[in-house]
Amino acid sequence: MIRYSTIESHEGQFMVEEEMPVYGTGNQAVDLSMTLALETIRFCERLEKDGKFVVSNQFLKCGTSVGANISEAQEAESRADFIHKMKIASKEIREVLYWATVCQHAEGYPVPEKIIEIATHLNRLLNKIIITSKSTNKRK
């Protein structure tokens, strides 16, 4: 999928073509969670090839549920419901980071560096979204 962005410079505006993933929604949290899920699936397939089924199963569940919760939050019934769903997604990210740390320190396990990077970034983003949503909620 191709996306066009408008760039402004001292010479005026011009359009730039950007390659977007097929799942590119324009919502950074949704897109990052999809990237996390896809990387988690790839990593877990690697774990399963190595016979590491228990860790793979746990990792797969939390790594894919992050996006499911963020997706649900997009259709939240209220601001409180949105915050609650985003908090659940944040907890799932912490579990992803836990299993990534287990793999990092367990002998004979691959290190999921890309997953750690994505999850850390996504966790920071969700925390900002939650804080902003809470403060906006208090002002009303």
What would you say this structure looks like, in words?
By secondary structure, the protein is mainly alpha-helical. The chain has a single domain, classed as 23S rRNA-intervening sequence (de novo design (two linked rop proteins), Up-down Bundle). The chain is 69% helix and 11% strand. It is built from 4 helices and 2 strands. The protein has helices at 28-49, 53-73, 79-105, 113-139, and strands at residues 2-9, 12-19. A two-stranded antiparallel ribbon has the order 1-2. Mean pLDDT is 86; it is low at 1-11 and 14-18.
Structure in a nutshell:
This protein is mainly alpha-helical. It contains four helices and two strands.
Question: If you average the pLDDT, what whole number results?
Answer: 86
Number of helices: 4
| Radius of gyration based on Cα positions | 18 Å
Strand content: 5-15%
- The overall number of domains is 1
Shape: elongated
CATH architecture: Up-down Bundle
- CATH homologous superfamily label: 23S rRNA-intervening sequence
Query: How far do the termini sit from each other?
Result: 39 Å
Low-confidence stretches: 1-11, 14-18
> Structural class of the secondary elements?
mainly alpha
**Main sheet summary:** 2 strands, antiparallel
Order of strands, main sheet, comes to 1-2
- Look up the CATH topology: de novo design (two linked rop proteins)
Q: What's the SSE blueprint?
A:
Elements: E1 2-9, E2 12-19, H1 28-49, H2 53-73, H3 79-105, H4 113-139
Antiparallel strand pairs: 1-2
Helix pairs in contact: 1-2, 1-4, 2-3, 3-4
